[in-house]
Design a protein that fits this description.
The protein is an all-alpha fold. It has 8 helices and no strands. The structure holds protoporphyrin IX containing FE (HEM).
Amino acid sequence: MFDVALKQFCDWLAATALSHTIQAVSWIIPTVQTIHILSVAVLFTAAVLVDLRVWRLLDRDVPVADVARRFLPPIWPIVLVLLITGSLLIIGEPRRSLLNSTFYLKMALLAVALALTAILQWSLSSAPKMPNKKAMWRVEQLAAAASILVWSGILFAGRWIAYTQAG
Ligand code: HEM
């Protein structure tokens, strides 16, 4: 039932004027993909720089709060660019992503990655001083390790969509 409705939605989306334009104008998809991939590169770099600093593997002479304040806030506008470019890719070929379970895995991982980013941003750069600093540091280290794994999973799933196409 839901499957049928989703397929109908994909067909409706593929028949819209915007989808036709994306399909017909040859430079649109490569341009949008390029912006998507460049944004991915910037986002991943920003997230991993903070994660490695939390684990004291990078920039040890710079306070962790400064590194977090510098690199975590830009992640949010970049996610917006990814959302816009990703949506354009979907509109151009709706069935390729919307009927593909790998796409939903990627979106679920993205929700987890954004939650981890919000936790780290709050805890590292703006949290009021906690009485139990050591326990807090452990939580931050765990969140940073999970962040690297989950962002990597999103990269993998993003590429994998092309190899697990349905309908
Ligand atoms: C914010 C919402 C996002 C949406 C709606 C979205 C959507 C898409 C779509 C539709 C594709 C094309 C897949 C295909 O046809 O093969 C794609 C590719 C990709 N996405 Fe995203 N994406 C989003 C965010 C992200 C994020 C946060 C990352 C990684 C940190 C990411 C990494 C990738 C990668 C690596 C590819 C493969 C690019 C290629 O090989 O051409 N995406 N995305």
